[in-house]
Amino acid sequence: MNLMTARTGGLAALAIVVAVAPVGFSNSYFYDVGVNAMFNAIVCVGLNLLIGYAGQISLGHAGFFALGAYGSGILTERYGVPAIVALTLSAAVVGILAFAVARPILKLKGHYLAMATLGIGIIIHIVLKTEAGITGGPDGMSLGNFKMLGFTIKGDQMWYWVTGVLLIFAVWLSLNLIESPVGRALRAVHGSEVGAEVVGVDTSSYKVLVFVVSAVFASVVGSLFAHKNGFITPDIGSFFGSVHFVTMVVLGGMASVYGAVVGAVILTLLPQLLAVVEQYEAMILGVIMMGTMIFMPKGLLPSLMIKLKSREAGR
Amino acid sequence: MSLLKVEKLSKEFGGVHAVEDLTFTVETGHIHSIIGPNGAGKTTLFNLITGVYTPSSGRVLFQDRLVSGMKPYELAALGMSRTFQNLQIFFNMQAIENVMVGHHLHLDRRFLPSLLRLPQVTRRDRECRDYCAGLMEFVGLGKYLDADAASMPYGALKRLEIARALAAQPKMLLLDEPAAGLNATESREIDEVIKKVASSGVTVVLVEHDMKMVMGISDQITALDYGRKLAEGTPAEVRANPEVVSAYLGTNG
């Protein structure tokens, strides 16, 4: 029962924050940053299922994000496919690709898994860069608005509301999964693989499943990002992009859905606030990552929750 | 009727024969203990039976079906579950969730209904929670229903593993040193739990060093030394066997 109220309460709080935040938005630039923060948040909610809950790492998710973006770009611009069909097809292809690579690489653990996923991300990045005939190469490609059923999503404000609804939907899906038998099995894989196996959990299949789910999350957001931005370059799939996503998850809180959202929002806003020191962004990210690991390895949100709880208990 | 048959089973680790040419059977409904000095190959044997290791040679039959080479999760589906000498608890989860993972095979675990939180999934899951709370009471963990696994003492975690294994509703339960590291009182309580499990119709295979417990509850004992079978029989027969005595106590001179 407690869980039920925490669940609906959390979703309601998120909805309120999304709805109320624009009160402080004085121009469309704020909406633009807000949309990007929520795009990142959705990717991180998916990635957190893999990293935080199932205990696997991926340093290649920007690659899946970029594949979604380019899939949509190529299908809509070159072949005139409707945007929603292009998004779905791209997500399906990314899902199949993730499925194909997942079984061999998820046999690996720790550093080896990190290296293998890193490799996949880099390969995707290179292919997007060099296959200029299809992707436009390093110069990038532009694409049109997202149209669906005679309705066009355009303008930062409209994108903000669409993305807000999608974020709440993504959080809802993620919470559902975690609280289901499937999600319990995923967390058990993190706890002890052999312990889970001997009571009937097919651990490799679950690892593959969560890898595919998180890749599809990234792909869908990539497609939307491409339409929103109107222009994409291969660098959205760079190694730095993948590290960015992982840092968001780690900072916000592993194995915490809302933590992933918080981490994504903070790290999207930070460069805006520190625009002056742009050339040091990578360094600042590194410092944040190290600081989080050393001082609050559970991440921002879970650490705060623990502190709050112990304060309440102290009373 | 025999539930488990182990035939000429061997496992080598780089030239070391951890288990060698071992043959024995476990009868349905029995408490069957495997004893032997440290390094005799007991845990390796468990890992071979439950699919954690694949045998170098020989075979394992469960309900007359060849199961050697199968994965642990496939064996769990056939009705075999186990505990571990060195705990394999999900420390990132609540105690009751640990037990609920044990019930995994009996739940609706389709992906889409889970993702959409369909009512049938949540209803089955609530029933599962009640069922697992019952199992925790059964093994004497009633006061840990709301606890995180990470906050529980060692003795309680041992029982939590038993509850998790029982949640899979096995036909055969393999317990790897359930009393190791427990004090006399806790050890007696585990003893009671094992008897209750056996009387509920589950066949128990037990690895244990606590001879008082083994001699008290076993129907059948197999004694190992250096991976080979040293003796087998009822507790009285095994206790009287001179080879067993010398393996445990050493020979004179």
Automatic annotation (TrEMBL), chain A:
Residue stretches in coiled coil: none
DNA repair as UniProt keyword: no
Pfam families: BPD_transp_2
Keywords per UniProt: Cell membrane, Membrane, Transmembrane, Transmembrane helix
Gene Ontology, cellular component aspect: plasma membrane
Topology within the bilayer: Multi-pass membrane protein
Compartment list: Cell membrane
The protein, known as: ABC-type branched-chain amino acid transport system protein
Native source species: Paramagnetospirillum caucaseum
UniProtKB/TrEMBL annotation, chain B:
One Gene Ontology cellular component: plasma membrane
Alphabetical list of Pfam families matching this protein: ABC_tran, BCA_ABC_TP_C
Gene Ontology molecular function: ATP binding; ATP hydrolysis activity; L-isoleucine transmembrane transporter activity; L-phenylalanine transmembrane transporter activity; L-valine transmembrane transporter activity
SMART domains: AAA
InterPro entries (UniProt xref): AAA+_ATPase, ABC_AA/LPS_Transport, ABC_transporter-like_ATP-bd, BCA_ABC_TP_C, P-loop_NTPase
Span of the signal peptide: none
Record keywords: ATP-binding, Nucleotide-binding, Transport
Any GO BP: D-alanine transmembrane transport
Matching SUPFAM superfamilies: P-loop containing nucleoside triphosphate hydrolases
Chain ranges of the ABC transporter domain: 4-251
Entries under PANTHER family matching the protein: AMINO ACID ABC TRANSPORTER ATP-BINDING PROTEIN, CONSERVED COMPONENT OF ABC TRANSPORTER FOR NATURAL AMINO ACIDS-RELATED
Protein name: ABC-type branched-chain amino acid transport system protein
